Amino acid sequence: MAVAVSRSPLIEVQQVTKSFPLPGGGRMQVLDGISLRVDEGEFVAILGPSGSGKSTFLRIITGLVPASSGQVLYRGRPVAGVNPGVAMVFQSFALYPWLTVLQNVELGLEARGVPAEQRRRRALSAIDMVGLDGFEHAFPKELSGGMKQRVGLARALVVEPDVLVMDEPFSGLDVLTAENLRSDLLELWIDRRIPTRAMVLVTHSIEEAVYMADRAVVLSRDPARVVAEVPIPLPHWRDRDAPEFKALVDQV
Ligand code: ADP
Ligand code: MG
């Protein structure tokens, strides 16, 4: 569901390609001229077969990996290096096992140069927001998969990114845990309890895309191109005012 009215582009990906060197020489083309625009208020899902380059694409948007050609703009400006407007949630959580929940979440702020006295306050607030109040001093190994992903989410949200990009964040979780996390995340987004202005979700689940997103972008494989952009019409049952949504809530 689009939660903001203005329609200015936050992210513009322009004709991005990516190739990797092959062990025997030559290069493997993974992304072949991908363009994507993400506007304020949008929730975009990216669907594509396994190995098509979805993770690589998100890493390029985030600035963790450079594109081979093409560019990424943030608020109209070309991004070199880490994208200042984007934070990422990883499929495998990517937590540091030797750090506590609090330290893992604070790390994102440290990397962005936030002064120490602000870090703790903001980290505690992010931990509370994702429902992990009381687990600040736990270590990742003491947490369930769903809780670990909540830490991953807190670590991304703590920097108050304009755009949250998520790489199959629910795929390592069991069905009920994934469902809880999906609906909690949607609630934070729809109720505007997070300052995030756009969401990008990579998923292999059409149901998840329809449940969460306003628009689905479908990628092909070998190499990846955008083969379809499908609007997901409102009101669908995620819209809390839609009769479908109310009827479902009545069932639960
Ligand atoms: P997806 O997330 O859609 O499953 P990935 O982006 O992980 O796809 O990978 C796309 C292709 O790029 C795969 O064939 C993968 O092996 C290759 N690839 C990804 N990262 C690297 C890398 N750092 N070096 C070489 N090949 C890579
Ligand atoms: Mg992937």
From TrEMBL:
GO molecular function (one): ATP binding
Domain ABC transporter: 11-246
Keywords: ATP-binding, Nucleotide-binding, Transport
Name under which the protein is recorded: Nitrate/sulfonate/bicarbonate ABC transporter ATP-binding protein
Highest rank taxon of the organism: Bacteria
Residues of the full protein shown: 1 to 252 of 452
Organism: Carboxydichorda subterranea
